């Protein structure tokens, strides 16, 4: 078309491409931290960060679905705990220990082998429990018309309580776990940690769902204009329900990754983790009022948080003080979000100024 | 008069008879009939609250009628949800609520009707390509990848039409399509609609603008107070006849005679501006005067009164209230100085719906209800009863909650709330919007009484008859500026509309 098509402020348009902006921020962070501590920006450490952040990404993908429809879920850690606890109890009850001999350095050595319910079944169980929790949240919100934050605050307590109830207050420890489960998040396939592989699988499935299926696009439609969606025959309640169910399913899966990573399942597992998940989405450009957000942005947002967390440890700025680490994390998240808001406002102001009167 | 000429049954694409829809407490449609011929443009008019929107929603399956029949091509249909209506070829373009502002134009067109490729994934290439083709067939060059929310209203209308076309609609319902369009944009729209008609699409056109009706429609149907009033061939109708049927009585008996004398200047606004919304707005308001502030939707009227009363802050200009220069940061401050705002959305901005009448009325004046530092319930009760009496609010007592009242009576409560203060300038934003005809007349009477008591009233209004009958002068805005200020003697419908229509945007010449 004609030259008129070009907008005068190209930089502004670039800044609006949040994925690009986030990638730059991420690279800058890695570069800066790497300058202070060369051990940070090594392929090994970056891969470690990717593995460490995988759980956060999996959860953020689910949270994105929920935020897209204009809802929110703060019961995520409780769903993780209940799912992992259910699977953990099944694993503990079916645990079989056998003494055997294994070949170490060419010599036979005595060892104990622990087996239990097959790992895929356990994962399926946890995902199922998680999905059921998400469904419950969705029913409360979509059909019970309870405010999302209130509904999931309530279900958070119920689900934590259920974890206590079914476990009788007993945590699941390494001794209760099968070898397969302990090794689950330590194994490498094709040079990648299995957490990374599961995260990648979840990412690809969700990307196909959100970007290339009719149902996935309805998440956006409902969040962008629920009234219009209803008018055009979209069952907005069912869409909200599905979003919460997806969140629950991913939380169940993430709970297993978390449990295997920690070698422990406690009743209050991952408490407070929901804030990182929501922060990852917001940094990634998902609007908490619904309708806006890209899946690549969410992954980048989660990675940003992962890099900051790891970087703070590597820089040893804060010594061993948990307080300072948390405070700096919080400050960085706030700065990222305020920057986003500022960029958005600057854009809106520009649009207002350009509007002809 | 009914059914201008007898029409053979097979010429009718749509035949609606005895449709009634009841919402809790309201008859939204009462025994309404309507026929639509094949390839016809049929205008549907009526005042706000006459039942037009409910009628559309019944036709598109959003609401189910409580009784009555709908025949489509001679066959009875039951639109149980919007999808059914869409499959039957009935598409509606709503005034505000149809678009997904965050999504692309192409996606807006095909939402719910996605372009798939095996094994069932969305093909974005086809989506964009087909969207571009559809838009081109309408003679438009809108980029299918553009974000819907960043288009102008006129462009969004065209996208909505493309959406209806993509669904092969045989009946197209358009709800006030030209409400925010300039003259040229309206004419472009007219030619698109005429093109649709030539291809055999039947159109139901809802509009307040007589221009639209007289230049497009073949027939016109009037609804009033949820009832069917009549249908006329367009050449048998003129605007006076239509207005009389819409209002239900002749205009001069509907509006009270205003007798107030114009006194000293109360409010003066000069050079007021707010970046992106309005600029260079100047006018003055006198005691005993009703000053109209009119123009099309989006011309900046509400923004101007919000800036004057402290809801938002102006970027330039001065406001002088009773001789003193003022700049308010909140509406409460303005009220304390004698400037009251009756906001446009009474349910959200004007009232606390679950609260009682007396609590609503006394809210801005709670300071004066104190006795020994504590609130005096007796005083609050008195204020409630006083408002009910003074404004003839239909309620059992001051303890009735605001949400139990009809729209007109709710509006009176908002007025009562403002009158309990010591305001002398009353800013009323669309005071009769969504109010039944009886309450309208009552509100007009109250406005005249207030003017006679020496109030200055600034009334924002989109309703031409209201502005012409009630105002001493009218400030007419277009595109964020004052286009002209007319004296009552110079009021003509054409003059006011001409001054409201946006100027054509000058295309920038490429460098």
SSE topology:
The complex is a heterodimer of chains A (357) and B (511).
Chain A: H1 10-16, H2 18-36, H3 43-68, H4 76-93, E1 96-104, E2 107-115, H5 119-143, H6 148-167, H7 179-184, E3 188-189, E4 192-193, H8 194-212, H9 214-224, H10 226-231, H11 236-262, H12 273-283, H13 295-315, H14 322-354
Antiparallel strand pairs in A: 1-2, 3-4
Helix pairs in contact in A: 2-13, 3-8, 3-9, 3-11, 3-12, 3-13, 4-5, 4-6, 4-11, 5-6, 5-11, 8-9, 9-11, 12-13, 13-14
Chain B: E1 12-23, E2 26-37, E3 41-45, H1 52-59, E4 67-72, E5 75-76, H2 82-87, E6 90-93, H3 105-110, E7 116-117, E8 121-122, H4 124-137, H5 153-166, E9 171-175, H6 183-198, E10 202-206, H7 210-216, E11 219-224, E12 227-233, H8 239-247, H9 251-254, E13 265-274, E14 278-286, E15 290-295, H10 301-308, E16 316-321, E17 324-326, H11 331-336, E18 339-342, H12 346-350, H13 357-362, E19 370-371, E20 374-375, H14 377-391, H15 407-419, E21 425-429, H16 437-452, E22 456-460, H17 464-470, E23 473-478, E24 481-487, H18 493-500
Parallel strand pairs in B: 3-10, 3-11, 6-9, 9-10, 15-22, 15-23, 18-21, 21-22
Antiparallel strand pairs in B: 1-2, 1-4, 4-5, 7-8, 11-12, 13-14, 13-16, 16-17, 19-20, 23-24
Helix pairs in contact in B: 14-15, 15-16
Condensed summary:
By secondary structure, chain A is mostly helical. Chain A contains 14 helices and four strands. In chain A, helix 4 runs antiparallel to helix 5 and helix 12 packs across helix 13.
The radius of gyration computed from the alpha-carbon positions of chain A, rounded to a whole number of angstroms, is: 22 Å
Under the CATH scheme, which class of chain A? Mainly Alpha
> In terms of structural class, how would the helical and strand content of chain A be classed?
mainly alpha
How many domains make up the 3D coordinates of chain B? 2
- The fold-level CATH name of chain A is ABC transporter involved in vitamin B12 uptake, BtuC
Oligomer kind: heterodimer
Largest sheet of chain A: 2 strands, antiparallel
Give the distance, in angstroms, between the N- and C-terminal Cα atoms of chain B: 59 Å
Q: Which pair of protein chains has the largest interface, and what are the residue counts?
A: A-B, 33 and 39 residues
Task: Give the CATH topology of the largest domain in chain B.
Answer: Rossmann fold
Strand content of chain A: 5-15%
**Helix count from the secondary structure assignment of chain A:** 14
**Cross-sheet strand order for the largest sheet of chain B:** 6-9-10-3-11-12
Count of distinct strands of chain A: 4
The parts of chain A where pLDDT drops under 50 for at least 5 residues are 1-10
Terminus-to-terminus distance of chain A = 26 Å
Strand order of the largest sheet of chain A: 1-2
